[in-house]
Inverse folding.
């Protein structure tokens, strides 16, 4: 009986892995992924987007064992393995080659001796083989009966870059997808860091063709679970992770990483830092009629490509409410956004333009002042506009983007900062923003505009108890006599 089982050809990649690797453990997750791989090899035109927690064996199952099993079924299959770098793709290819070299007799095929490069090789006596390449390295001289895209994005920073997401999508559409033979299948395996990542874009563009398979570490009623578990059930881990281990991981990594890496969700089900209910509940129908202060706020960009320049206008009402009255954020060069900021200031009657100056404070201020000078010469501006940088000199840069946004978030929640009208692009990005992600540029600009309005209206004070006589600016310092007095005593003192 044992001899019969040894001669039987494995029906799935999981069965093959278990046969050749005694340490390989087939969990429910691995079994499901293995069945999905069988469908991709045996059925034409399959399109699957897969996400599971790290350290579950998904890459080894889908990129390595599936490749070996597929060539065992048909040595003429051409397989393309794609990753975010040539190095990672070739690691997978090297593992496939190792298995073939060690178990060629059992598998029934060997590597061709004349085509033995790690990144591109063929099966001896057949047309099949593997090409392993980075997402941006191109696919030349090789087609794909099966394309396995494993981790096309390196990390959250790449996923948060609009320019990088666009490059990955363009590479898939213009190069990778064109190499797939008629009837060929694609397996996409990735961490869902962003709603508009490659998986998100493909599922949105062609939802009838692409199938999503998601297995969260712990099942949640609001998160798709291909295993169909009731809420709150931890996955069976090949490495022995328990529900307590996953809970500790969640506390350690934070919500954004937890939901992206361990739940396959690019945003938390509970929502982001900015709630849509805040924006809708406090919305103003139009801009304030008689604002006491209006400022144009700029979160600058330099190249005009990729990330946008955040460019908004905010007004302070007599009642102490800050209203965002305009948003013209877009990818712009420094000269272009400086001109746009001046034009917007003229349009909304702003008396000040404030530019975020963490990296090039003096340069940005100079560029805006030059644009103001040209507007004055052209006759389109007949009044003074003050130009400042943010944060003001002397005020320390506070923490990360979330920390700097704390006052704005509280104001949006309580209604002391409101949207005057509807700003669809701003609202979509604001509501999707989560801790750990790149802050949307127009939201970053609103942080500046809100802060400038609040300080200009005197709603945030810096108080200090004054020194007694003899410790003024002309003295040599506190050590020359006198003492600190209470503010009440100082304010109620007699003059003269």
């Amino acid at each position: 009986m044992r001899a019969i089982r040894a001669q039987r050809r494995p029906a799935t990649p999981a069965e093959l892995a278990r046969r050749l690797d005694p340490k390989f453990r087939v969990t429910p997750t691995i079994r499901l992924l293995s069945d999905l791989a069988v469908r991709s090899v045996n059925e034409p035109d399959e399109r699957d987007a897969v996400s599971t927690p790290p350290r579950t064996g998904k890459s080894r199952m889908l990129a390595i064992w599936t490749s070996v099993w597929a060539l065992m079924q048909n040595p003429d299959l051409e397989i393309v393995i794609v990753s975010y770098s040539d190095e990672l793709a070739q690691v997978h290819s090297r593992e496939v080659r190792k298995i073939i070299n060690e178990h060629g007799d059992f598998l029934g095929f060997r590597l061709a001796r004349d085509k033995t490069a790690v990144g591109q090789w063929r099966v001896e006596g057949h047309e099949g083989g593997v090409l392993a390449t980075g997402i941006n390295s191109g696919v030349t001289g090789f087609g794909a009966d099966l394309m396995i895209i494993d981790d096309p994005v390196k990390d959250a920073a790449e996923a948060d870059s609009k320019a990088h997401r666009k490059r990955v999508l363009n590479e898939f559409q213009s190069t990778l997808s064109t190499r797939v033979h008629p009837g060929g299948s694609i397996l996409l395996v990735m961490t869902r860091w962003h709603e508009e990542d490659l998986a998100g874009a493909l599922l949105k563009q062609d939802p009838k063709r692409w199938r999503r398979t998601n297995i969260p570490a712990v099942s949640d009623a609001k998160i798709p679970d291909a295993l169909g578990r009731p809420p709150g059930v931890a996955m069976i881990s090949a490495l022995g992770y328990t529900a307590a281990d996953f809970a500790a991981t969640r506390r350690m990594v934070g919500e954004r990483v937890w939901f992206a890496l361990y739940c396959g969700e690019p945003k938390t089900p509970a929502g982001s830092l900015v709630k849509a209910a805040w924006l809708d509940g406090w919305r103003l129908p139009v801009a304030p009629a008689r604002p006491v202060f209006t400022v144009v706020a700029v979160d600058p960009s330099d190249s005009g490509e990729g990330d946008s320049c955040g460019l908004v206008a905010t007004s302070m009402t007599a009642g102490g409410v800050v209203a965002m009255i305009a948003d013209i954020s877009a990818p712009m060069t420094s000269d272009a956004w400086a001109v746009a900021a001046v034009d917007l200031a003229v349009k909304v009657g702003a008396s000040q333009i404030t530019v975020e100056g963490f990296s090039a404070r003096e340069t940005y201020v100079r560029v805006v002042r030059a644009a103001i000078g040209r507007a004055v010469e052209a006759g389109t501006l007949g009044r003074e506009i003050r130009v400042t940088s943010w944060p003001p000199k002397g005020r320390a840069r506070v923490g990360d983007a979330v920390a700097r946004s704390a006052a704005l978030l509280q104001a949006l929640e309580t209604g002391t900062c409101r949207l005057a009208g509807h700003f669809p692009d701003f609202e979509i990005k604001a509501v999707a923003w989560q801790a750990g992600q790149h802050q949307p540029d127009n939201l970053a600009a609103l942080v500046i505009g809100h802060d400038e309005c609040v300080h200009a209206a005197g709603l945030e004070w810096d108080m200090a108890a004054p020194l007694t006589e003899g410790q003024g600016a002309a003295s040599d310092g506190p050590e020359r006599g006198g003492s600190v007095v209470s503010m009440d005593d100082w304010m109620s003192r007699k003059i003269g």
Q: What stands out?
A: The chain has a mean pLDDT of 87. The chain has three domains: 2-262, 276-456, 467-496. The chain has 18 helices and 14 strands.
